[in-house]
Transposase, IS4 family protein (Chondromyces apiculatus DSM 436), 269 residues
Amino acid sequence: MGARLQADLADAHKLSMAVAFAKESALQVVDLEDWARQGGKLRFLAGVNFTLTDLSLLRRLEELPGAECKVFVSPDTRTFHPKLYILDKADRCVVYVSSSNFTRGGLTTNIEVSVRLEGPSSNSEIKKAAHLFERLFKNASTDSLTPEFEAHYRETQATRREALAQATRKSPLKPLHTAENLALRAPRDGEAKRPLILVTDPHNYQICLKNMVWGRQHERQVDAYHIGDVFFFHVTEGHGLAAMGMFVDEPYRDDALLWPAAENGGVFP
């Protein structure tokens, strides 16, 4: 795929690509920088699910003349997963519908499958691909890179690395992926949210799961949490990161005793 894409770039004046993941390593296979410096126009849309995309690649390409790079921030738990490459040439278009991400592995060493279409821009299948890319590139979930998003993305990457380092083969990763999507979406939905780590012992952790609530004795601590804040439960006694979640409602006071006073040395509403 990498060799074919590089060959097609030789006489293309425009490249539009939408991929799930993008890595700087791909530039060792397809030299987009040299092509863009010679006048090529690039539109690049990359997904940010699982925080696998190198934002440094997008920043690097964005500095080139005629290049526009964006990220697709999934509005829910779905993964942005296309691999679509469209090359405009003088008298025709080439479209790749592929399983290859813009990574060194996706373009060279992985086992991938790609379909290459070539024909005039008026061809119905070529037009469908072009229209699909336009819808993705101008979608409400598509954003330009901002310093705020980059900082939040790197925080989420660090949290993911910590969680994966402590995960076991039996640990379900779906909750982690869901939490990541919610965390990455936070800057789009208003004030950027920081990931929280809530520390509890195994007994209280089970109480939290049963009641779907996280309590504090001091109101000022509870008031520091906001709707949309993503949190990770760290359970003591060697359990590590055990669950991920999000605050979905305003804080409230409940005077019913959730924990017996004898266990905590005081009244705990």
User: Anything to note?
Assistant: The chain has two domains: 2-144, 147-264. The chain has ten helices and ten strands. The two ends are 61 Å apart (CA to CA).
